[in-house]
């Protein structure tokens, strides 16, 4: 899927400010598919897309988080230079934050809390 720089900009806008979670996810999935070409990866980078994708990892929607993660993964898949740019944009700490378990109220569970049998 090849996208013009204008189309990339519009998808990033939709991903960031979409009218619904579904619209945001659709835009992110389109960016992920497009990122399979070096031209699209360059366009995403030139449009300031990496900080947008990293910021979306902090979304309240797990669907948006997943779609943003996939777009960043696709950005890293082909060239080491692209991976370095994703890392420099702060993706690693943001992705690690997603892996942290949360308990009730969003707090990380204490290791002192007893495990419950299911």
Short description:
By secondary structure, the protein is an all-alpha fold. Helices cover 65% and strands 0% of the residues.
Description:
With 118 residues, this protein is an all-alpha fold. The protein has seven helices and no strands. It has helices at 5-17, 21-34, 38-46, 49-56, 62-76, 80-88, 91-99. The longest helix has 15 residues, at 62-76. It starts with a helix and ends in a 19-residue tail after the last helix.
How many strand units? 0
Mean pLDDT metric: 88
* Largest sheet geometry: none
- The rounded distance between the terminal residues' Cα atoms is 46 Å
Order of helices and strands: HHHHHHH
Name the overall outline.
Answer: globular
Helix count equals: 7
Low-confidence stretches: 107-118
Give the strand content.
Answer: under 5%
Q: How much helical structure, as a percent, in the residues?
A: 55-70%
Strand-pairing-aware structural class: mainly alpha
Q: Nearest-angstrom radius of gyration? A: 16 Å
Strand-helix topology:
Layout: H1 5-17, H2 21-34, H3 38-46, H4 49-56, H5 62-76, H6 80-88, H7 91-99
Helix pairs in contact: 1-2, 1-3, 1-4, 2-5, 4-5
State the main characteristics:
about 120 residues, about 65% helix, mainly alpha
